[in-house]
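hey can u check if this looks right to u? its 77 residues, i copy pasted from the old doc so theres a chance i mangled smth
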Amino acid sequence: MNVAKRFAGFRALGKKGVQLMITIVSKNGRDISQISEFNGSFASENQQEVLFTSNTAFRIDNLEDKGDVVWLNMSEL
């Protein structure tokens, strides 16, 4: 989660937008960290990327706007 927080805090000069933190409870997602382009490249830690099939459905369990960051919690159906 620390890597995600650092990534969400990164802003290119002059860019505006909403920072979104997504947490997904996965059943069938596949860890692609070892073949990811960003595996340790953006931060000193692995970003733990997960790949889902294109037809994967998710349920939104919680959405919370904390002002500077929107937190979205989802579960794979």
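DSSP finds one helix and five strands in the chain.
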